[in-house]
Amino acid sequence: MAANPPVQVGFQNKNRVAILAELDKEKRRLIQSQSMNNPGASIPLSRPAVNKEFRDQAEQQHIAAQQKAALQHAHAHSSGFFITQDSSFGNLILPVLPRLDPE
User: Other C-beta atoms within 10 Å of 93: how many?
Assistant: First the structure.
């Protein structure tokens, strides 16, 4: 394993810094030219609250579909009873033990 001489390492660091500075300048120039061409581009097109509500609703529908699939699978492959219920541990379905009346 050959070590680079200190002069070469310093040159590589300076070169790397110069490249990063040039990329940063180019990025700023592109952002400025883009904002000049489209002055309304920075205005959000939708309200964040509506977007969040839509995302939450889609997530709830996805979870409901997963629960339904898990429940159907459990009923098909097990002789036990299961229910869908929110779980602190992320379980989609929970097993249920029936209560027996004392005789």
Answer: 20
The predicted model scores a pTM of 0.40
CA 28, CA 40: separation in Å to the nearest integer? 18
Q: 99 with 73: CB under 8 angstroms?
A: no
Residue 81 lies inside a defined structural domain of this protein: yes
Q: Which residue range forms the structural domain that includes residue 78?
A: 55-102
**Is 98:80 a contact under the CB 8 Å cutoff?**
no
Residue 78 pLDDT class (50, 70, 90 cuts): confident
**Whether the Cβ atoms of residue 72 and residue 84 lie closer than 8 Å to each other:** no
**Residue 93 β-bridge partners:** 84
Contact 79, 96 (CB under 8 A): no
